[in-house]
Amino acid sequence: MQAIEEIIADTPLDGIEMRLMQPEGRANPYPIYRRLREEDPVHESPMMGGWFLSRHEDVSLIRDGRFVQRGPGFEEAFAQLADADAAAWGKMSSGFMLSMDPPDHTRLRSLVTKAFTPRAVEALRSRIREIVDELIGNLRSHGEADLISEFAYPLPITVICELLGVGSDRERFRPWSAAIGKALDYDMPDVMREASRAAEEMTEYFMPIIDERRRRPGDDLLSALIAAEEDGDRLTRDEVIANLVLLLFAGHETTVNLIGNGVLALMSNRDQWDHLREDPSLARHGVEELLRYDSPVQLTSRNASVDIELDGKCINAGQHVIFLLGAANHDPAVFSNPDDLDLGRSDVRHLSFGGGIHFCVGAPLARLEGGIAFESLVAAFPDLHLATQELVWRQMLVLHGLQELPVALK
Ligand code: HEM
Questions:
Q1: In 235-281, which ranges are continuous DSSP H helix?
Q2: Cα-based distances in Å from 117 to 112, 120, 123
Q3: Protein residue with its CA nearest to atom 19 in ligand 1
């Protein structure tokens, strides 16, 4: 296979963003980002009908209230989903707090953030350690294993299910999650229909659980969300279900990639693994650098609510803007030697959790899970090695991660 660096060097700038959709670009988007940052940082894409921002300074505009979720084209896009026989997905996804602007967003987010304060999350530390120890115990009986399916996936799905109080039904969540993940990447009718089927099945799955929790509230986040629904008109049943699904999805798909991409980065930069081996407590701070180096979420998007001038170009009201978080994280204007992994790097101002009003609610939890995972893995398997040179990446762009990560444990 031709190296992505060579492919990109020969690609005209016009349409270069389409390379992000190809397998080589999904596996390693950084050479594409470099050209965009250096040659056309505010890049118009007639093919995608929008703009790509790649410099740290511009991607930081994600905090700017002029970029919104529901711009002038929102109603139209929603109607298209209904026409494409994907109304259930349209209804569910538009109920995600992530798809909302203030004041609806503020109302939903305030209910959820209470459960995710650093203090509340810190209380989960010992339970997360228990889950990690159990998974590592299972791994000890293997000479080789797929670290994604045996460790990176079960850890966050178990934690988020327990936190929400919905019992771990991993195998049922897996295809639903995959359908949602694809819908974030491609707005093709069959993908939307599949996401819509998943939305219907999830609604059916969660209805009786919600009824049960209404009768017998527990000490979990789902009970807190239901209580809010009963408070009057603050949170409707559809909103409870939509945001339960969002938390379940966002709470594990991303963290799987933090662990998978992080372990791969450490295997590919052995000196950094060795530092961690000498001092596993470095993981707590090092997790920030791993988040920066190969971000689990590579991009997010908004609509311009008004005309916005940037770098001498005009982004018109209603146009779609893609914020390349992964490109910002490798901007040499902010990070020295940005393509080097350096766990000791100070002041890692990465944008991997976004920024502004939608800044990741689960960031403290993701940091805690990641820190414990890396610290425990290096302590248990100091000689960990990749067991393949043929890495298979998931065919997704927004969520950047490996399909499998075969490792030798001894
Ligand atoms: C390494 C792990 C994670 C990464 C890289 C990540 C990344 C992100 C990013 C980039 C956003 C902002 C998206 C935007 O502005 O368009 C976001 C929002 C969000 N994340 Fe995370 N996330 C992670 C883990 C989690 C976890 C563990 C949870 C839940 C327990 C979670 C729940 C959410 C929610 C609910 C939002 C929407 C917040 C809002 O709209 O106000 N995430 N995340």
A1: 237-250, 253-268, 270-278
A2: 10, 5, 10
A3: 360
Distance 368 CA to ligand 1 centre (A): 14
Residue-averaged pLDDT of the chain:
91
Tens-place pLDDT, residues 233-252: 567 888 889 999 999 999 88
Is the pLDDT at 117 greater than 80? The verdict is no
What are the start-end ranges of the E strands in 91-209?
144-146
Assess contact for 245 and 256: CB atoms under 8 A.
Answer: no
Smallest CA-to-CA distance from 242 within 175, 180, 162 is with 180
**What are 387's two structure tokens?**
């067991």
Please compute Rg for the chain using Cα positions.
21
The encoded tokens of residue 120 equal: 């509340």
pLDDT for 115 equals: 65
- What 8-state DSSP symbol labels residue 362? T
Ligand 1 atom 17: residue of nearest CA: 360
For the whole prediction, is pTM greater than 0.85?
A: yes
Q: Which atom of ligand 1 is nearest to the CA of 108?
A: 41
Q: State the Cα–Cα distance between residues 27 and 161, nearest whole angstrom.
A: 29
Atom of ligand 1 nearest to the CA of 297: 5
Is the CB of 115 within 6 Å of ligand 1?
no
160 lines ligand 1 (CB under 6 A): yes
DSSP-derived secondary structure letter, 316 = P
d(CA 98, ligand 1 centre) in Å: 9
State whether the beta carbon of 326 lies less than 6 angstroms from ligand 1.
no
163 lines ligand 1 (CB under 6 A): no
